[in-house]
Amino acid sequence: MKRIFDVVSSGFGLLVLSPVFLLLAVWIKLDSDGPVFYRQIRVGRNNLDFRLFKFRSMRVGSDKKGLITVGGHDPRVTRSGYFIRKYKLDELPQLINVFVGDMSLVGPRPEVRKYVDLYTPEQMHVLDVRPGITSLASIRYRNENELLDQAEDPDRCYVEVVMQDKLRIDLEYVANHSFIYDIGLIFRTFWEIVSK
Question: Would the N or C end of the chain have less CB density within 10 A of its end CB?
């Protein structure tokens, strides 16, 4: 039932949002050099790698200067990038990942291999389900960039504090998730985006 909902919802979303995709694509291309989409290898269900799609919000090659974005004014972020990140529009292309089966609408946010390699055997159970576009952990850490901006060592803070708490929340989801809970979390995500 969850997979059917994912396919129908993501397909409908891609169709309805296609004008928005087009406008954002034009803006991104006019704003800075580089492709419209940013594709990054993430770790999904059963510990398998997949290519995650996002609208590009940073200058080309920025990921080579660090995987973590800190603060509201990271100089690597483009002008259009600030806007699409603020309203989570950069995440919309992940509907493609949901449609093809790499992701779900709701589930633990997918990490890069560098951080997954630090998981304990227990934490690896977050990979028992498809990763999602939204999760309770991502809602609670919506302002993660600002939090890391205040840290003396952002990467260490992420690994030792933020990632650990997010994994704790995600493991609770894996153990107790339900279709009704997912629907509620989708509505909560929309509310968080439009109310901030």
Answer: N
The CA distance from 180 to 134, in Å, is 15
Q: Which of 40, 75, 72 is nearest to 54 (CA)?
A: 40
Residues near 150 by Cβ (< 8 Å), separated by ≥ 6? none
- Can you give the pTM of this predicted structure? 0.89
Write out the DSSP string of 87-134: TTGGGTTHHHHHHHTS-EEESPPPPPHHHHTT--TTGGGGGGS--EEE
- Residue reference for tokens 């603020």: 86
What does DSSP assign to residue 153?
S
Higher pLDDT, residue 196 or 164:
164
pLDDT tens per residue, range 71-83 = 556 788 899 998 9
Tokens 């989708």 — which residue? Answer: 186
- Tokens matching residue 103: 């992701």
